[in-house]
Amino acid sequence: MAELNTFQRIRDLNWSHSVVLALYLCERMVPNYEFFCHITQFGDAKPLRGALNACWDYIANPKQTKVNFSRWQEKVDEVTPSEHGHDMLGVYPAMDACTAISVLLQGLMDKNAGNLLDVAKVSQASVVKFIELNDAEQVSPDELRQHVEEHELYQYEIAMQQAMVDFLESQPQVNAALIKQMRQMVLDEGVSNLGLQLDDD
């Protein structure tokens, strides 16, 4: 399975590169939350954005930058929606975006590389869940797994994660210049992991 190979390659990255990859993946999930907020008038994307900005600053210069990861995690938790009371497909990607950022923050608090890998798993699972829920009525249960694996969103998610691992493996170290490049790459890609356009703000 392609995703299993991807996960092993992520495990093999060093700590700083793993953090950068997790941040990149979280950035690609935030537009799903912003779309949910726009549609439902629930929540606030500022804590998600603030948490990611703080983490980018931290990994660019960890010795000089102090971040209260626990407090940011609390702020993200406060704006995390629940499937109860939101009867719409979009609640799940919004929840997944919050989960991914919370897991990232936990990993930075605990210095746990397993949490950083979990961000990649959350991103992939979010794509799978979206396809399954969106297409369940058009595809028989027996064919659903194959349908997901052949879906362009899923294939793009796998390819994107592998491409980012390729790129990071070629970078000898994480520094401010690489962070700036990575953040620009998110903007240049221009879409979330579900294909939503990124907000230009």
From TrEMBL:
It comes from the Bacteria. InterPro entries: DUF416, YP001051499.1-like_dom_sf. This is DUF416 family protein. It comes from Idiomarina aquatica.
